[in-house]
Hints:
The chain is an alpha/beta fold. The chain has a single domain (18-324), classed as TIM Barrel. It is 33% helix and 14% strand. It is built from ten helices and 13 strands. The strands form three sheets. The chain has a nine-stranded parallel sheet. The protein has a two-stranded antiparallel sheet with strand order 7-8. It has a two-stranded antiparallel ribbon with strand order 10-11. Strand 1 (18-21), helix 2 and strand 2 form a beta-alpha-beta unit. Helix 4 crosses helix 5 (117-136). The longest helix is centred in the middle third of the chain and has 20 residues, at 117-136. The protein is globular. The N and C termini lie far apart (40 Å). It catalyses: Hydrolysis of (1->3)-beta-D-glucosidic linkages in (1->3)-beta-D-glucans. InterPro entries: GH, Glyco_hydro_17, Glyco_hydro_17_plant.
Amino acid sequence: MIHFFLLFFLSFSGVRSLGVNYGQVGDNLPSPDKVLELLTSLNISKVRIYDTNPQILTSFANSNTELIVTIENEMLTQLLDPQQALQWVVTHIKPYFPAVRITGIAVGNEIFTGNDTVLMANLVPAMMAIHEALGELGLGSYIHVSTPTSLAVLEESFPPSAGSFKGEVSSYISQFLQFLSRTKAPFWVNAYPYFAYKDNPDIISLDYALLNAMTYLVDPSTKLNYDNMLYAQVDAVIFGMARLGFDGIEVRVSETGWPSKGDVDEIGANSENAAIYNRNLLRRQLANEGTPLRPNTRLEVYLFALFNEDMKPGPTSERNYGLYQPDGTMAYNMGLSTSSASVSLSSSATK
Length: 351
């Protein structure tokens, strides 16, 4: 009964806060216009891409889809020059806006958990240059600038009230938080309970990792009840920011998901768990839930990912986070239903 309710509700209303990551690391993916057709049929109107692919931007024009675009890590150094940053916005954003509803620019991805301290030092100056370029072109109030950060940036994450950033990156994080506070942009975090469960299956409850609300953990400091790991991870980030003197910055989840297939040592990576995790995530999004620390602030979440991507390097799981196969068949059924049974994704690939 719950499953059919989700199908009915989603088909007619969509999910206001649920977005999806549309990756393109595959040689057999459908064309952007077919992808838009699928997203529209699912009533998903928030999408994040990992570049500024002109084919995607052109295809998404005059749709109701809100788009977050990405500046690749290797581009950051060039953007320290204000003129280069302005030229980037003139080339990659201005020709498409407002026909394409670009709402955010992600400057790099998971930079604070890499080993490149030069890149870390350049991140906020590059973000400032892009933000100022947007302002110069009259776009600053429409498009926020931020960067997705891996949860691995935290030194402590449980209990949530103990949340703190690693000492070696705290100075960079402080500079970043100062920028977010000044520009009113969100802190984006890539949060995957799957990784924590895979590494500690004897310690972490599978129900807790799958958002099943069958295990409740109490933060001894705040006495807040946590029935799932994702919300605990988000609140740990909020506490970490407070420790550096920053309250009130919104935290959004730029990536979360569960792989439907994995290698032998990737415990828990299977289609059953992937379906449970994403159905529970969808159910919570339909309820417009906030975390225990911020119950009245709806948590915005971007699911990873729309498609299985066959060219991603790494373990088997990396190629199996998708809700869909590239041919349009479901990788598993998480409770999403298209409003039309005729959506077909058979077309040439985009690269």
